[in-house]
Specification:
Helices cover about 35% and strands about 20% of the residues. It has about 140 residues and is α/β, with parallel strands linked by helices. It folds into two domains: about 5-40, no CATH class; about 50-135, Nucleotidyltransferase, domain 5, CATH 3.30.420. It is elongated and about 80 Å long.
Length: about 140
């Protein structure tokens, strides 16, 4: 009498593919992506915005961020001051003439520097300019 277990094991190669390692790799890559993705949108210039009552940013907008030491960023792109007008014109050309430019400056930036940046943005062709502020948290009512 022949042993049936040996016959089953020695019948030939397995026809299926083991996809468990592929799924494990995909899950590890997904976790890495979820951890790293918030870091990719970080603005390269850190500022402390003045506090005010304001609305949330519109979808069709870009932000110009100015630090106290004079560094300038357009969204997440660090720029030199002389490159700002060209970058603004390119953004307006790409997004349309109703693009909202939000100027975010640190509270320690002088008023003269702020007005100079606003003039550069206006001269570059921007029609809609806003000054960015930090939202004040409303006190909870009793």
């Amino acid at each position: 009498m022949m042993d049936n277990r040996r016959k089953i094991l020695s019948d030939g190669p397995i026809a299926g593919v083991n996809i468990v390692p592929v799924i494990d790799l995909c899950l590890v890559l997904l976790v890495v992506l979820l951890i790293i993705s918030p870091l990719l949108e970080k603005v390269p210039v850190e500022v402390t915005l003045p506090k005010a009552h304001a609305r949330e940013e519109k979808e069709n907008s870009v932000s110009v961020t100015v630090s106290p030491d004079g560094r300038i960023a357009l969204d997440t792109l660090l720029l030199r001051r002389e490159d700002l007008p060209r970058a603004i014109r390119a953004s307006i050309q790409r997004e349309g003439p109703n693009l909202l430019i939000i100027v975010r400056t640190d509270e320690n930036v002088t008023y003269g520097d702020l007005t100079e940046i606003l003039k550069v943005i206006k001269d570059a062709g921007a029609k809609n300019i806003a000054v960015g502020t930090e939202l004040i948290k409303e006190a909870a009512l009793p």
